[in-house]
């Protein structure tokens, strides 16, 4: 029986379109659709893609295209960005792209926005070209998007067609306290990347809630926490499966990024003590284990931080094991 606290919490999925060792991006997109269809059937609220560039093991460089692919092959689940890295794009283009998506799939599209480049500086320069050294204002660009989406923009010289007057919720994404202050100031929902940047999570949530100003978009603070999830029928199997995500984060720390590797029986063969500590720090907000173990830990997490929604991301090599993890996790939120 799921804990009463979890039964009141929406649950969602963040998909990084992780490319498995020995497979291709095409394979990844097919398994993403499979996972999205299962997630819809299991009652998940959203299915989001993150924008990343120049990463061999991550195929979500064009989240707008993937959002359309998933939304076009599902019927109810909300689909969106977690997020679009706004400095990489002109606000008008984002407004037109998401306006197109929202016209095709009404009331199902979310626009999560981040201020990071989603890549290294050299690649960011390649993306932005001559605009790389231009002064970017994340708050101002958000205001431009809101203006383009507003029905009152119909007399402006520059309009988002489609996009104008459509229902496209904007979320602020973040991994620091700056994003928390911005989301609070603008009265927008806040999604925190606690799945890889746990350091400022508690402080950021507190700042957001304490400084929140009601807006036409949101009357009360709304926090979504993204966490790593590896669920299995036993704690032991979940620990084994989690070796894939641990090796992935080891690659981030050492600068040796690779495709997602199969699970191994002894992760300690791949890292030293300092590397282990660094990976475990990055994965601090991870829920690994059986349904019982994750339910206990997740209930404590929700109670402590008062989050309104949980978004799970699961780097599991075996697709059937990933589907099983997604099923087990959904079961925690149902009576």
TrEMBL record:
SUPFAM superfamilies in the cross-refs: Bacterial luciferase-like
GO cellular component, as recorded: cytosol
All copies of domain Luciferase-like, residue ranges: 17-302
GO MF annotations in UniProt: oxidoreductase activity, acting on paired donors, with incorporation or reduction of molecular oxygen
Family classification: To bacterial alkanal monooxygenase alpha and beta chains.
Official protein name in the record: Luciferase-like monooxygenase
Organism phylogeny: Bacteria, Pseudomonadati, Bacteroidota, Sphingobacteriia, Sphingobacteriales
